[in-house]
Design brief:
The complex is a heterodimer of chains A (108) and B (114). Chain A is built from no helices and 11 strands. Chain A is 0% helix and 59% strand. Chain A is globular and about 40 Å long. Chain A has strands at residues 4-7, 10-14, 19-25, 31-37, 43-49, 52-56, 59-64, 69-74, 83-90, 96-98, 102-107. In chain B, 37% of the residues are buried. The model of chain B has no long low-confidence stretch (mean pLDDT 93). The N and C termini of chain B lie far apart (37 Å). In chain B, a hairpin with a 6-residue loop joins strand 4 and strand 5 (44-50). Chain B is mainly beta. Chain B contains no helices and 11 strands. The chains are: A mainly beta (108), B mainly beta (114). At the A-B interface, strand 4, strand 5, strand 9 and strand 10 of A face strand 4, strand 5, strand 9 and strand 10 of B.
Chain lengths: 108, 114
Amino acid sequence: KNEVEQSPQNLTAQEGEFITINCSYSVGISALHWLQQHPGGGIVSLFMLSSGKKKHGRLIATINIQEKHSSLHITASHPRDSAVYICAVRLGGSRLTFGEGTQLTVNP
Amino acid sequence: EAGVTQFPSHSVIEKGQTVTLRCDPISGHDNLYWYRRVMGKEIKFLLHFVKESKQDESGMPNNRFLAERTGGTYSTLKVQPAELEDSGVYFCASSRPGLNTEAFFGQGTRLTVV
């Protein structure tokens, strides 16, 4: 069992919908990252969180340390948001441990 | 500033051959990481350099993999001899000195062993 679990694995939405991707982890962490990977592209860091909530444009990330859970929200989704979204955590050292990713498809 | 660059972007080699992947981190980033995504699985850690020193190489799958970072700048990851199960996407990431600094990723190298 992976130490980082994401849900759903696949998500299809219509343009304009509100999207939530969830991430749960099993041990204490020092930080959690949300990453984005477009098809054929590299990985882009969206957020790094250790507590609370962060917002950047239409993206919002929250984390609940007590519940070992984080969510990534996309408001007013757009086809260009289609990508793989990956949750990754720092378990104590500086290396990252990754979830399997969520494939998001936003249809026009 | 220039981002993390990796090359080649794609490599197709035959089983038993040698391949060398290269990563140029962001200037001033002492931390350099190699990660790998094998088809259908999550991205997994391979190793971590701090400057030229290997800080953690616990993720290296076996002794066919050799990573170097001479001079603490760019890094190479050599696979010799390559096996079919080595196919995947190899990512490099770098970050500023310290433990909890943001990581910046390269575009990845897609390696296919046939």
